[in-house]
Amino acid sequence: MTLDSRWLEPVRAPLRIVLRVLFIEKGVPRFAKQQAAWLLLASLLFTPSAFAAYAIAQYGQPKYPPDFKHFDYVNPDAPKGGTLVLANPGRATSFDKFNPFTLRGNAAPGIDVLFESLTTGSSDEVASAYGLLADDINIAADGLSTTFHINPHAHFSNGDPVTADDVKYSFDTLKSPKAAPQFAAYFGEIARAVVVDPGTIRFEFKQRDRELPLLAGSMPVFSRKWGVKPDGSRVSFDQLAFEKPIGSGPYLIEQYDNGRNITYKRDPNYWGAKLPVRVGMFNFDRIQYKLYGDPTARLEAFKAGEYDALVEYVARSWVRRDVGKKFDDGELIKREFVQHNGTGMQGFILNQRRPLFQDVRVRQALDLALDFQWLNRQLFYNQYKRIDSFFVNTDWQAKGLPSPGELKLLDPYRAQLEPSVFGLPPVQPNTDPPGSLRANLLKARELLAQAGWTYRDGALRNAKGEPFEFEILDDSGSAQSFEPVIAPYIRNLQKLGITVRMRVADFAVYQKRLDAFDFDVTTLRYPDTQVPGSDMIDRFGSKAASEPGSGNLIGLKSPAVDAILRALVGAQTLEQLTDATHALDRVLMHGYYVVPQWYSATHRVAFKRGLAWPKTLPLYYGAEGWIVSMWWFAPPQSVQASAPQPAQTQASH
To answer: What is the residue extent of each domain of the chain?
Structure first.
């Protein structure tokens, strides 16, 4: 980095005074001019107002030095070429827009390859950010602002340079009502974006928060011209559908068909290919997605050779269905890849907006009715572990008794919290001997009776005689895999006198109902969390509970949780962040807002022979994104050497 005018901005005013003393004012004693000269030198050398960097870390220092050439987990010599064909990466079976930042509709899969951000994280660190669109990062000494200088070589797909005005436009748009509400929550503690000059943008924060510089850098950037018509009029951002985005990413949309297929081609003028954070990445000339109507059709299409790689999320399918002649012949290969992601929570979400679920004893009873050990034996081939934390598989999981730092956060709300919060974390029910489902259901019946629910007239009823009944909402894209799970859970609940209906909806209808919080119970997996931060506000904050489309599907409104969240996002040390996250985990787990399901620490991938990947695996990664960004087609002579042996069917995801 070189010293430039951005270093002088905080001391411009005192410098003007000093320079006036040195060169303009007459009659000033010589010793005063000498003192002024020393002041000028000190201002330049020792000003504490900011530091500039190629990378930043939330805690500690970035792993990679300023002169690094590429990340350790990529192959810098990976050959370029070929077309990677993939199926639906999620549950959506069609798309009706290119804009991934709005609430309405389903965005095309893979559309994120069109957009870059000011910084990018590495996949072997939990909280570092390296310059991407930005080539220089200045964090103010008071922690209340961060300034990014934009790489002068960065340009959009239409050839326009990326400017500070574009960054500000992206920020203001994403925080506006025209974007999905989670962006306003995610960037909620960033007060404003200020254009310093055409190549410099400053983000100002509402409070000192070590995560905020990383959040500001992670914001996707798009051109102000996206949505502008030839006549100069503009399509409203929330109405953008098939207007092609103007981004600065490595790919462009080449063609699409009826919301079921889309092909991206590598931008021949992609500006960032030689950046250290992009070397060895995005090796395919084209990436094509084919969307199938249901899991069976998708699997059969893979076996027929219609696409190249399948990430398998269903244990039974991995063992029983992802088999056949092509697997036996080595044309299709199965492999499990270890990952260290924070697995997060997956489970039956109990909507607190429904009066039925507002008593913690009722929610605990529903947890007792899930026989995980039976499911693991009968359906999952003993491949899973029971989730017992919202931060499982990480150091953020609460263990043992609360620390003094945790108690400092919890004690002011002792009267509002369950007494058990101040003890050990809850242990999930177990039916392995000497435990049993019968013992768990007897305990559940006792809890339900304490909450006013007793069995009479053929059903579990409250004092008004109303039966205990609810609906589990699922989408058609996952019904085949979850129906065998939901059915035995329903049978167990029926033994308590509870009536449960399973409702399967098309994904678009399902998503619309989730956005409107129009459900009793649903199955959901929260995204992985390596370092808890502002995303927790969207998931568990009281304000988010009233915002349609937010991540707070639980409907949780708790002053105690809100206070813990404020401490979490405002943590200045790793110890403070750990205490806040542990406290949050205790409150959530003892609240029984979710009936936890299961997790594994591997990614299961089946793929065509000929695909290859770097020798060093990332630590924290999603399988689909890893394949798209870091795999390649190996030359024919090297295929045999790079092809793995079929995986053993052990831990799965």
So the answer is: 5-47, 55-252, 292-340+601-642, 346-599
